[in-house]
Amino acid sequence: MSTHDFESSDRTETETAPEGTAAETADRLEQAEARADLLAEENRRLRAQNARARRSKYRRTALGLVAIGLCAVAGGVIFPESREILLALGATGLFGGLLTYYLTPGQFVAAEVGERVYAAWAANGDSLAAELGLREDRMYVPDERADTARLYVPAGAGVEPPTDADGPVIVERDQRGLLVAPTGATLFEEFQRTLSGELASRPEPLAVQLADGLVEGFELADGADPDVDAAAGRITVGITDSAFGAVDRFDHPIASFLAVGLAVGLDRPITLEVDAGDDRADWLVTCRFEPDAAEEDGTDEDEPTGEDLEFDDDE
Q: Which of these CATH numbers, 3.30.300, 3.30.1380, 3.30.70, 3.40.1350, describes 112-297?
């Protein structure tokens, strides 16, 4: 065999090797794409199955209400002496069943998804405050231009919070800090829209309203137990099973909602502190404010005092 034959053989092997490697790479890419498509399809199937399961739960409840309503209506026909009560019960069951069936939510957002979205905001807020050299104080200040409050992170101690600054960064020496819209602002707006009565303006009933909104309205926690000391200007809410993880992070939705609601309802700045809880609660959210004269005296300003009462001298 000549030298020319060896050179031709080497060139052939060299030329075919890259072609074989490229073909194998293409096969692996096709397999990876196929697996990705299968996983995506499986995720879509699981999400659809989960949504169907949730919808079926609501619809079973609706069918149960309709069944109760029909039984009550039938009972009203059979038992004339109780007809009014049974017909009213039947109408309520039928109406509730129809509402439950047709108002079944079609899209659900897992709490884990919301928590991850919030985690990015918390990390950015902490980083920004650290970069600006701000304190760890968190103050929620009523916004005079809107029925809400804003989060103020001061640079110095004992600083009066701004009331009409634009933000987000305040550069004035006596009020330097960060002034941003908190996560609890939009939650509080929604809470006000769903509130059946007026928003309370005294610490005790206002704390109860906000705690009920957290648990019953937004389901951000399994438990919220308020402890109010109006004379000392303190409201502490014990939080159990937060849906958004640790509550001591920057502008957490639970703490932010409570602070915004108190700032708007009491119409004064709120200083927020969050500590780890004890055996009764996972987290303790403490909101401090400057009490007014009535709160310091432990009286309700709507109740008449001795000076306001007039007596008839003839009696």
A: 3.30.1380
